[in-house]
Amino acid sequence: MEEIKSLGRTEFTEVELKQRRDLFLRYYANAQAYFSAQNYREAFKEIRHAGEIDPLNMKLAQLAIEIFKRTQNGENLTAICEKMIEIEPDNIDLQLDLALGHFLIGNYPAVIDACTYILTKDLNDSQELTCTELLADALRKKNEFEKAKNYYLKIVERVTGVHRILIKLTGCYYRIGDHKNVVVTAGRLIEMGYNDQNIINLYNFAVEKTEKSIGKLYKPKSFLQSLFRKSYDPAYAHLMNLELEKEHAERRVDTEQRKRYTDTLTGSNNRAFFDERLLSYFTPDTTTQSAGFVFCFFDIDKFKTINDEYGHKMGDAALIEFSKIGKDFFKQDLPDGKKQVETWCRYGGEEFVALYFGDKAAAFKKTEKFRLYIQSTLHIKVQQSQGKPVRIVTCSGGLAEYPAEVKDFTEAHQLADKRLYYAKNHGRNQIVKDGDGWTTSLPAENK
User: Fold this and answer.
1) Among 51, 105, 240, 357, which is 20 to 30 Å from 137 by CA?
2) What are 331-379's pLDDT values in tens digits?
3) Rounded to whole angstroms, what are the CA distances from 156 to 235, 241, 249?
C-alpha cells in the first residue's frame, strides 16, 4: 500500500478515501500492538500518524489517553481529555481521566471540584470507586486527612483487601493521631503479607501508644493467635479477630490478584490479564505452540447506537451479558489436558478477544456458534436484566491462526483486526477468517 502524501487536503476521490481508511486502520493496529508490548514511544508515533488522518477518532484518543495514564504524563492527559470532552461532554470516563490529569500535575483543587461533581452523577461501580479514591487522594495531598479518611473507608467497605487503600488509610489515621486504627489497618497489611518496613514501623509505634489499654484485654484463643502475638503484638488480634483474618487470608490474596486482572464492569479478564498472562503463548517455547491456536477478535456491532437509543445503563448491560456468554464459550482445556484456561478478555470498550486452542477451521466453527448465539439471545438477556426491550444485538469478528499464518502477537493482532474491520465494513454480524477471498459466515440481516 502506498503512503498518502497529501494528508492536509480536505477533498478526496473515492479511491483516496479508501486508501486513507486503510492507512488509518494500519496505523491504529500498529499502535495497539505496540501498546500491548508496552512500547509506548512507538505506539504514540503510530497514533500521531493515524491522527493526521482522523484527528477526532475516539478510539484513537482513548488509546493515547491510556498511554498518558501509564506514563503518568499529566499535561498531555489533561490536554487531550479537554479536547475530547468538547466532543462528548457527558462522557464520565473522560471526566475522570481529566481529573487524573489534574492530579498528576498537582492541581488538587481542580481534582476535588471535578470529583465532587462527578459523584453526583449516575455512575457504575467502577466509576464510583475510581472517583472516590481520586477525591480522597487529592484531599490527602492537601492535608485534609479527616475528609480523606472518610472516603477511603467508603472504598474499604465495598472492596476486600485493597493494599493501596489500606496504606493510604493507615497514613491518614497516623496523621490525625488515631493510633488504634493505625494498628488495625497496618496490622491488616502485615497479616496479608505486606511487610514494607515503613508499615511495620508505623504499626510498632501505634502499638506502643495502645498497648497498655488494649493488651490486658487480650487472651490467645488458638495456636495461631499465640504465634502472632509473639511475632507482633496482641493489639491487632484484639481489634481484628485474628482467627477470621487467618481463615480468609489466602482468599484475600487471591481476590487481590483477580481484581488486578478483572474488568470491573463485566467481570471478565481485562487487558492487563491478556498482556501479562496470554502474550506468552505467542512465544516459541510455549508448550501449546505445537498444537497451535487462533487469536479471535470481536466487536459488538453499532454499540454506540445502543447507548444513544437506550442509555448507558442499557449499553453496560449489553457489555455484561455479552461477556458472560463469551466466558462460557471460550473456556477450554489446554492441549495437554492438564488444566483449563479462560482466555476471554475485554480488550477495550466494546472489543473482546480470546484464544482458541485448535486449528482455524475448529475456531471458525466455534466463533460461528458464538455469533449466532449472540444474535438470538443477547437482546433477550439484556431485556431480562433491565426490564426493558432492546433491539437485536449482533457482533463481528476476525480470526488469525498462530503459527500457521503469523509469527508473533503483533502480526496476529494486525491480521485479526484487519479481518474484523472488513466484517464491520461489509455488513456486520459475521466472522472473517481468511484474507484472500474473505471467507465469512453468512451475514444475517443487520438490525
Assistant:
1) 240
2) 887 655 545 677 999 998 899 999 999 999 999 999 999 999 999 999 9
3) 21, 17, 16
